[in-house]
């Protein structure tokens, strides 16, 4: 798969290629000359229809005397029809000289790169030249300038002095324009984020969102832990995508160590990934009713979500499915009784969820609030590289489970729901349809569950190897990239969550709506602060 | 409107009477780690695999004592200790009601007598661990 792209790129850009390798199947890495990088990125994005799925900055001065930037692209298969699983990853890498810590920004051509580049500037001190909005992103004004936590000479225990400085927010001025600041402390039990509305009456003219109030240093911490302990960190990146993040982590390391995990482990992982999607989607559909004041729907959604979480606990010992994954497979098997418990619970949930949808989704009061509210256009979704439910509700047909099959997704048949309206209603309906698809997937897997081992022992991992691990979580694609270090440790662990790429879309869909619709729009994306601010 | 009413009325009471009536966690649950000190040798494998430093130890080389400690406050209930303990001395129980006003209530401590090296005389490993493992009694001082 990668060969065709390589040949095509070689004819176009042979002068700029320094080296290429395929360390793991379907991941092509090309080392390019820095001055040609923007051109190649544009070619991949504009001509080949590629999407930027992650961008990583890494301090490799101890290894090769420079920083290194990695651009990860997902490319569609060749030809007019795109069969299942025909996409591959093409990854560009280039060196950034320590004496000139800057690189040409790709954001003017590929807006999806905007946060990655600002993050690299904050955490590694590499300047994206030509970036249209080079303000700070991850580290706020209380963090002093000149301290770059992801550099290797920055000790993780360092406590830099607190500083203060003004942060400039975009403002709308004019007669009758009000500014409404909301947060970072909120009324409900949600995480911190600051929202600055500019409105005329109820109508919102502009929304500025500021996140990253709780930078936890997850990626830095992962660099000091052995890979066995890093797993528990990955599992705790967030509550919602706990199993998804852990699976991404394990898959990346299994690729690096060239380990084939048992077939049964693939099946079980897929089942747990779908159980994770189920309890979240069911809860999200119910939660939408909290935004429209339909309390019956909210309570019924919570009731079904609770049943699913109790099922999680009964079969894995943890409501968030933690403690099951391990590098090399799974830690606990699924007994026959539990297999039957899952099937019977899901049959019941399917019936009750369908009944709930019939009650809540066809009310005129509900439809009035959901339809044409918070429209995300397909163009904006593509420009920002939006993923998951939000992408599929705006006509972007992307789903890693089908496009880059992992675990046992190539063993089951399922539909990827797609809508084009891009409004709150479309996002809710995508979730509803996916609930029934998830149940179908789990039933297929449980019917054909192979017997055998669930785990291969992984004692050590080879140093200085790298690979992607990815999963389609309830919120969208979680892309992890790991580069290993000696002594079975990680050299660099880049976590790109679905929420991280979807957050910038939220402020863009809000203008034109009324203030009371903001919570509804926000809920329809249901993004995670913890996944975003690592 | 009628359908909403029907749904509400047909649902009935869904909450449980906890804490008036106990709510038992399922068998698979990973709750408070219980240590069987009959089986434990103080070999410290658990503290090496614990990702959140809930299990720690300190060797008092003057007194010849290993001070071992488990803090439920730091525990993330991952079960790594249970899985890696060579003697099956740790079990993650179904007990979960651990709220406390006092952090000290969340500590489990143990002392293990250390054995000294026959060559250099330095304390290095617990007596119980040396009895369990057939390997040569030495800590590589040569």
Descriptive overview:
The complex is a heterodimer of chains A (534) and B (142). The two termini of chain A are 33 Å apart. Chain A is of the alpha+beta class and 534 residues long. Residues 78-83 of chain A have low confidence and may be disordered. Helix content of chain A is 40%, strand content 19%. Chain A folds into three domains: 2-129, NADH:ubiquinone oxidoreductase Nqo5 subunit (Beta Polymerase, domain 2), CATH 3.30.460.80; 177-210, no CATH class; 218-532, Cytochrome-c3 Hydrogenase, chain B, CATH 1.10.645.10. The longest helix of chain A is centred in the middle third of the chain and has 30 residues, at 263-292. Chain A contains 19 helices and 15 strands. Chain B has 142 residues and is an alpha+beta fold. In chain B, 18% of the residues lie in helices and 23% in strands. Chain B has four helices and six strands. Chain B starts with a helix and ends in a 10-residue tail after the last helix. The relative contact order of chain B is 0.20. Chain A binds chain B through residues 225, 228-229, 232-233, 235-236, 296, 300, 303, 313-318, 322-323, 331-332, 355-356, 358-359, 363, and chain B through 3-4, 7-8, 11, 14, 25-26, 28-30, 49, 51-52, 76-80, 83.
